[in-house]
Structures are given as C-alpha cells and as structure tokens.
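ok trying again, last paste got cut off:
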Amino acid sequence: MANRADLLRRLCLALSRPGVDGVLASADVLDDLLLLGALDDRLAIGSMNRGGLAGASFELDDRFTGHRPQDLARLGFDAGKLLLRIDPGDPGSLRTLHAAARAVDEMAALSLPVFVEPFLCRRDAAGLLRNDLSAEAVTTSLAVASGLGGTSAYTWLKVPVTDDPDDMARVMQTTTLPAVLLGGDPGPGQDAQEQAYEKWRGALRLPTVRGLVVGRTLLYPADGDVAGAVDTAASLL
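nice, full thing came through this time. structure:
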C-alpha cells in the first residue's frame, strides 16, 4: 500500500464494479479519488481518528486527527468512521472512549451516520497490540460501542468476524444497531481468501448485518485479480 498510484488504480477498479456502493478512506485518499472522478454516484465515508499510530507508545490514545464532523458535512460526504480500541490496562483507552463519544454526539447533531469499529485488545510479550477476536471480547466491544454518546440514532457498527464464525449469531444478539463486516487480515494464499468469503457469507445472513467494508483483502487478493475478488464479495450480499 506504500505505492499510492498503485493503490489508487486498485481503488478505482474496485469502485467501478457492480455492487460497490462507495469507499471509506482518510482525507488524502478521498481527495485523490475526488480529483480522479472516481466518487461520482458513490458513497464517501471519512476516517476520523488517525492519531493512534501502529506500534507507538501512544497507540491507544487514538486522537481525532483526521476528518472532523464539520469537515464531513462541509464536503457533502455521507458518513464518518472511528476506530475504538480498548485495553483495560492502558489509560489511553479512556481518552479515546471520551473522544469517540463526543464524535458520536457531533455526528448525530449533523444527521450524519458514524461507523464505530470497536476492539478489545492487549499487548503481547513483545509489546505489540493484538485485537482479541474471541466471542466474549467482540461481544463486550459491541456493547461498549453501542452505548457511546447521547444517542445511537446515527450509529452503525463495523464488526470483525469472530475467530469461530459459528459464534457470530450469538455475538450479534448484543445489539440492535445495524452493522457491516470488516475484512481483517485473512492471511496469505488463496485458501485463506476463500475462507474469508465463507466467514462473510455466514455472517451476512444475520438480520442486523447490512454489508461489507473490506480493504486489503479485496484490493490485494492472493491471485492479484482485484475485479474478481470484488465481484465475489459483492455476490455474497
């Protein structure tokens, strides 16, 4: 993804495929896509908190350094997205929780949907942050995210598929909020890609799951066929 021209080429191809509604990205990527005319008749969702850099000591103090609610409204974008990683042992999580709650309030005041992507996480022995995708952890994270702010009227959830996909039905009973599935990292190889499709297929049958918001899995598929990967994902909906 370090080659911006290649990333934009892949994004434009994905956005041109039937069944693709739009794109979620940071401000610089959305600006590039706007200049390329790739967002005509497509939804644009802005990424809001970008401060929690991977591997940094302040990773969980995830400041809102991307799109502000007023930016999304001014630009005529359709929604925003915020990442909410919670480690009970890291005080930075509380600052992020507070900022996320206020962002939910501000988006609701502007009648703009906000996609909340929650994780319970912890640091491993090497100090790297790891997301917990067990059913219990995902259930807790969804419950916390659902209660953020003074209203949930404009809140959507961006939900990972649990380690055991059979647990998803029980996990999604935690909330009545609408949800989309995130792609995660399926791992290398075509077999891992096919397993990801099967996980999504099962989870998309659940009543509150409304779609997919998937990045690297479709933009950088194992076989290199971006159009084929996007078309396969769209066929699951």
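cool. The mean pLDDT is 94. Residues 92-109 form the longest helix (18 residues).
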